[in-house]
Amino acid sequence: MAVQFKKTKKLIEEDKHQNKINDRMLTCFAKTERREDTVSENAAMDETSGDDLFDVIIIGAGIMGSCAAYEAAKLGKKVLLLEQFDLLHHLGSSHGESRTIRATYSAPHYPPMVIESSRLWEEAQTEAGYRVLTKTTHFDIGPADNPSLQSIIHNCSTNSLALKVFDTDSQLAEQFSDAFRLPVGWLSVSTSLGGVIKPTKAVSMFQSLAIRHGATVRDRTEVAEIKRDGIDIIRVSTADGRQFRGIKCVLTVGAWSRKLIKSITGLELPIQPLHALVWYWKIKDGFEASMSAAGGFPTFAYFGEPQLYGTPSMEFPGLIKISLVSGWPCDPDRRDWTIGGGDESEVMRQAADNIELVMPGRIETARGPVMTQACMYSMTPDEDYVIDFLGGEFGKDVVVAGGFSGHGFKMGPVVGRILSEMAIHGEAETAVRIGVDMKVFGMGRFEKNPKGNI
Question: How far apart are CA 244 and CA 65, in angstroms?
Fold first, then answer.
């Protein structure tokens, strides 16, 4: 009993000692919180005063805005990156578990951009010290007379991009361990430039790198107005009354591009927000390893109806991502998160049939996808990007970039550099160097033809 009493007394003394430590820690935390509140209040006052003058104000902190902030900050410019929601939110187009990178495009201006972007992805990862891109091969499959596939083959040759063309089932089976089947009259193309990007992680990486180079980042900052302030200053006002001044401004607000640009200039830019669905399907037992990136499974695009794209099994064990390259028109501020527009069941059935056509017996298609996630695209009628100066009273002091979704995330690093160059130097030097004519991305194309480059 005496021994037990001594142990109990010792435990009580230890508890008292720990409680003193806890009290000191709580007091310290309270003081820290009060200091942080004071700093936050002072920072808010500084922001509202508008005394700071930034070289570049970038509105929209998705992949394009974050890459642009990084590139401008690397040049030693004073950069402000604004985001209307929390950083790394899931309300736009720059989030989720995977995006693909590929250079197989039917339009000639995209392959050189992807090749350059691939190099810049590697540079950014090296600087960050970790990877957001897993390299794979890329695979395209469709009817042999499909114009897009024929153009892809031509553009790969033009850009010295090594490719393999398969027009027999035996060739294809040898390349991908029987994962794919080639229907009669179809062909497929394989290139080494492919891969899977982790989007949220990638956006975070570029924001961190931008901050490392001196950029200022502010989230929960909804822009309400952009106006000229004298001859050389752009004044950005927020919904909560703050104001920021910059010499140049870049707009990368994704699905909100149409609304923001119309509020600034009255111009109706045809960038349509689309509610998109991301599907994950169950892989049948025994095929999980062979359909992973480590097992050599590629990123792929299916040029049938409906058009599909997919990634190796990476994000969720036993599941593979195969989704539509399309969506349903929506208002980015009034999305229906539960449906795809009313006809998604029929499109899902068609997708299941197409999966069985080219990957028979590998995926459980009868019950449809086992997981569905909502995303949002913003696309132009011709599916080409908008990268241009706003013009009018803003001249070359405001740069607009939008309409990237569906095939834009992979281009983030090269587009970010181009936007930075346009804002700071007044021209896209990188585009000139890699042989891309920026006229194809101009806003004026819709004045001549509502469908743009089509």
Answer: 17
Other beta carbons within 10 Å of 448: 9
Whole-angstrom Cα distance, residue 402 to residue 388? Answer: 9
Where would I find the beta strands (DSSP E) of 239-349? 243-251, 272-283, 299-302, 308-310, 319-324, 328-329
Q: What are phi and psi of 414, to 5 degrees?
A: -75, -35
Tell me the two tokens of residue 37: 């509140």
**CA quadruple 80, 85, 91, 97: dihedral sign:** positive
Contact 167, 144 (CB under 8 A): yes
Lowest mean pLDDT among 25-39, 208-222, 342-356: 25-39
Indicate the pairing of strand 243-251 with strand 53-59: parallel
pLDDT tens-place string over residues 54-107? 999 999 999 999 999 999 999 999 999 999 999 999 999 999 999 999 999 999
Instruction: Return contacts of 427-436, CB within 8 angstroms, 24+ apart.
Output: 428/387, 430/116, 434/112, 434/113, 434/115, 434/116, 435/112, 436/109, 436/112, 436/113
The pLDDT tens digits for 109-119 are 999 999 999 99
CA distance 380 to 392: 21
Residue for token digits 């013009």? 391
Which runs of E-coded beta strand occur in 254-370?
272-283, 299-302, 308-310, 319-324, 328-329, 363-364
Strands 386-389 and 398-402: antiparallel
* Phi-psi map region of 275: left, alpha, beta (phi>0 left; psi -120 to 50 alpha): beta
Cα–Cα distance for residue pair 205/417, rounded to 1 Å: 16
pLDDT digit string (tens) for 298-313?
A: 999 999 999 999 999 9
Residue 115, CA distances (Å) to 101, 103, 190, 317, 420 in order: 10, 7, 16, 31, 19
Give the pair of three-digit tokens for residue 368: 């449809």
- Token pair 């056509």 in the structure block, residue: 357
Q: In whole angstroms, give the CA distance from residue 415 to residue 68.
A: 7
Name 214's Cβ contacts closer than 8 Å, sequence gap at least 6: 73, 76, 78, 79
